[in-house]
Amino acid sequence: MTEKQSKLGANGQIRRIMRWLIAATALASSIQAFADWSALNMTKGVTEISRQVYDLHMLIFTICVVIGVVVFGIMIWSMLVHRKSLGAEPASFSHSTKLEYAWTIIPIFILVGMAVPATSTLRDMYDASGADMDIEVRGYQWKWQYTYLSDDPAQEVKFMSSLLTPADEYYNRTPKREHYLADVDNPLVIPINKRVRFLITSNDVIHSWWVPDFAVKKDAIPGFVHESWAVVEEPGIYRGKCTELCGKDHGFMPIVVKAVEQDEYDAWLAMKQQEALEVYETVGKTWTMAELMETGEQVYAQHCQTCHQANGEGIPPAFPSLVGQGLAIGPMDAHVDIVVNGKAGSAMQAFAAQLNPAEIAAVVTYERNAWGNDVGDMVQPRDVNALITGEE
Amino acid sequence: MSAVIENHHDDHHHGPDKGLMRWVLTTNHKDIGTLYLWFSFAMFLVGGCMALVIRAELFQPGLQLVVPEFFNQMTTMHGLIMVFGAVMPAFVGLANWLVPMMIGAPDMALPRMNNYSFWILPFAFGMLLSTLFMEGGAPNFGWTFYAPLSTEYAPPSVTFFIFAVHLMGISSIMGSINVVVTILNLRAPGMRLMDMPLFVWTWLITAYLLIAVMPVLAGVVTMMLMDIHFGTAFFNAGGGGDPVLFQHVFWFFGHPEVYIMILPAFGVVSAIIPTFARKKLFGYDSMVYATASIAFLSFIVWAHHMFTVGMPIAGELYFMYATMLIAVPTGVKVFNWVATMWQGSMTFETPMLFAIAFVILFTIGGLSGLMLAIVPADFQYHDTYFVVAHFHYVLVPGSIFSIMAAAYYWLPKWTGNMYDETLGKTHFWLSFVGVNVTFFPQHFIGLAGMPRRYPDYALQFADWNMVSSMGAFLFGFSQLLFLFIVIKCIRGGKQATDEVWDGAEGLEWTVASPAPYHTFSTPPALPERSMA
Amino acid sequence: MTDQSAQNKTTLKLISVVFGMFVFGFALVPLYDIYCQVTGANGKTGGAYVASETLEIDEDRLVTVQFLANNNANMPWEFRPSVRTLKVVPGKIYDTTFYASNIARATMTAQAIPSVAPFHAAEYFHKTECFCFEKQQLAAGEQIDMPLRFIIDPHLPATVQTLTLSYTLFDVTELAASGAAE
């Protein structure tokens, strides 16, 4: 075969490759039409850090593509031209010290070029100081708990956030709606333009709290606390996921963060604090004997006195005496139980619906320690609450 | 043909025994190599079926086929079986067949141990697979089995899993000791280390890695066992332990393990490309040094698998820099392969096609690996499908393609028959398209935010998951064609010449095709510096 | 045969490497503890602090110390800090308490595990007295205020204005029982 023929052959090959390239480009553009860009690439996110990370990602990606194009280009060229069928004769070289040094040293420079911006971004990410607020993020199998740390335990906002998508949707019994597997009942709400510090930990196994738009991903490890932070610049709803295998429902514990304007946040927080305060007042705090007796006396006067009388002696047999006999000086559990659930077939009604746990605890404590009853014990509202809700 | 003047040893037969007992009792390196390869292929199909269960479930959003509990068992078992059952035994099988033939040794140095190290495997994997039928199901904590999910929260079958891992470890360790002893002691007279074919070199280094890290794996599962049954608290914070310690010890094993699965592949490709380029391997010395540096670096980069675990910043930076360094020797290898092809006289038989696809696709996996090394970016990539895409690019068109390339390349030597070239090329193209359709879109899915080990996903990931699943089925079923080709080749076909390929160099091509049951019973005389 | 003895030698060497690496795997446990101590990884704090030098009191500086108290899974106790935050002067000794109450129906033993964020502050948080130094056993219904006495080291890096100390309470009733049985 002559040299000319082989060259012609090579040219033919190249034309063929060009046609393929054009076809590939057409395919690539149709792929773009098929799925929008956000389904192909990392999000830019809404924080300074997430944008830095995105830029870093694009920088390394570009470098990698260039390296790829050069290396594969040479390789493909070689495959097209240096083939036996085109009459190529093998060369006899098998090393070149210069070349080998070059391709050992040049990559080192490229790597340094990547490492420098990566290091500075990482330093920023690791500096969680100067936070405006702290939120504890706690992973559970399979939901998240958020606690807005506050100096006043009465006002501490704390709630669980779990998947909203009903099982019917993931078992394909009803159509899948927007935000399928990406919606929760209680989203985390944070103000924009505030430095929010997340203290991330876990209750059971290792989880990982990831919100792509903040470029925050941190493992939640049982027993240990890790910190991360974000300053969100735009209001919006940002969705994330658990990214460390944590058992059965690992794929079913999404994260939703709602970033809102400061005043909206304040209003939301005030509402939540009010709720928290109510819960705290009723079941949260530990009551003293004096507080229970005082409240108990009022509750007794309002709800019990008509039947059991002010002196507790009742009107037997319809309304038994509470003094020195029966459940009032008996076991605490049974005493609470009769107030909560009433007694079937008698005039004693169930008070669980009318009285809150604090009132029940107070009145029970009062009955056990008034009119010469001196059992001396008391019951805390949360224990009553546990009995009512069946939770330990 | 420097071949085969048989030496009469008392404990050696002239040819194989007949029947089943031949395989049970064999101490012949070729028989054991064959056993390893078939075992590995069987495990490849089993692990592949599990992969297809995963991909079928992920074909569409929603839970159609399996429940999340079983899905987690599938991802776990798929990983364990592919790593320990398919890729590693395949390379051990290749080492058994080829290392003695390449260095002019009559057999492996420790033939009886060789037999044990294989026959442990069926029991290990039998035990592992039996957990699927146990109450509470098979291991469901991922192939990386992070504590406490794999200890306090594990199904009861975890104990069987631990023993299975111990058995696999013992098997690998025995196999590697054998390889090292063989290479160091049984080389043909006059063959220096720097004369050895690269496949032998890469396996020598791999064997050292295995000997160094498999005991650490044994250690970490032993700690798990003690935590679960004997009241210790290595990984339980409440008892003064730390679940993060598990990850450090695991990845101290795990990262070298990753290279254990790729270094022999480098050796295979370094054998095949020169043959079909009809040109000497470019930069033999630098290939050896690069392999050794990759092996060394693999010991000091483990924590790049756990950047999000919240290490101190100095740790993150150190592991980032060290990891990026690996790109240098790996780059050297790729450049060497390209330079080997440059100005060669190439033909593109099936082994060459697989080898070239290896270079390209492994490089893509390597480049995404470089991206993953950048800590701030890794926070976005970590535990997403981007990682899944990355390591499957390194392992499937990396390790597995190299194993297939090796199979096609040496099949004529093993069986004495040429495989069917048309079918081989068909198999290649189906696999090539299948692999890329499966794994390339997973880069997109990952970047867009889908975490790995999810049995179900949000709607925006639906399109690419469907594409990926279709690719997986294409790739999976193409492997049945491979099975057919191999069986066809064993049963007959064009007679292979002794040299088989016109550019092939190395002692294995100097013996008859098929290779006689005993080769090099007397050491071969080396051609003048042919290997250097 | 000399060949054979060379082989045996290599084999034995390799087997000893195997055993060595198995032991090394376990040696990683104390090595990891040292690593945690040096770097403060996972915010681990040391044991009881014994002053090796007199700490200068830096009156001009105030550091916020934030206390978290959590239960690990299946731990029913009520557990909370008596105060959420303290503003402290580095170098001075402070006291605070954590409240615990065993609301379960049986005697239980608990172990509190401390963790400091940020990590690099961990080594500057000195506890001279802490309930986390030993297991806490409470009978059913028993309540306790558990003491913590600490000093913030004045060498605490200036960037740290807030230091979070988290305690997680683990149920170690079984561990403690098996330990006692031995």
Write a compact overview of the structure shown.
By secondary structure, chain A is α+β, with helices and mostly antiparallel strands. Chain A has helices spanning 3-34, 48-81, 97-126, 167-170, 262-284, 289-303, 305-308, 332-341, 357-369, 381-389, and strands at residues 133-140, 143-148, 157-161, 188-191, 195-202, 207-211, 216-220, 226-231, 236-242, 255-260. In chain A, the strands form 2 sheets. In chain A, strands 3-2-1-5-8 form a 5-stranded mixed sheet. Chain A has a 5-stranded mixed sheet with strand order 4-10-9-6-7, covered by helices on one side.
Describe the structure.
The complex is a heterotrimer of chains A (392), B (532) and C (182). Chain A folds into three domains: 3-126, Helix Hairpins (Orthogonal Bundle); 134-283, Immunoglobulin-like (Sandwich); 286-389, Orthogonal Bundle (Cytochrome Bc1 Complex, Chain D, domain 2), CATH 1.10.760.10. Chain A starts with a helix and ends with a helix. Chain A has helices at residues 3-34, 48-81, 97-126, 167-170, 262-284, 289-303, 305-308, 332-341, 357-369, 381-389, and strands at 133-140, 143-148, 157-161, 188-191, 195-202, 207-211, 216-220, 226-231, 236-242, 255-260. Mean pLDDT of chain A is 86; it is low at 1-8. In chain A, α2 packs antiparallel against α3 and α9 (357-369) crosses α10. In chain A, the strands form two sheets. Chain A has a five-stranded mixed sheet. In chain A, strands 4-10-9-6-7 form a five-stranded mixed sheet, with helices on one face. Chain A has ten helices and ten strands. In chain A, a hairpin with an 8-residue loop joins β2 and β3. By secondary structure, chain B is mostly helical. Chain B is 65% helix and 0% strand. Chain B has 16 helices and no strands. Mean pLDDT of chain B is 93; it is low at 1-12. Chain C contains two helices and nine strands; from the N terminus they run αβββββββββα. The longest helix of chain C has 38 residues, at 2-39. The relative contact order of chain C is 0.20. Chains in contact: A-B, A-C, B-C. The interface between A and C is medium-sized, with 31 and 30 residues.
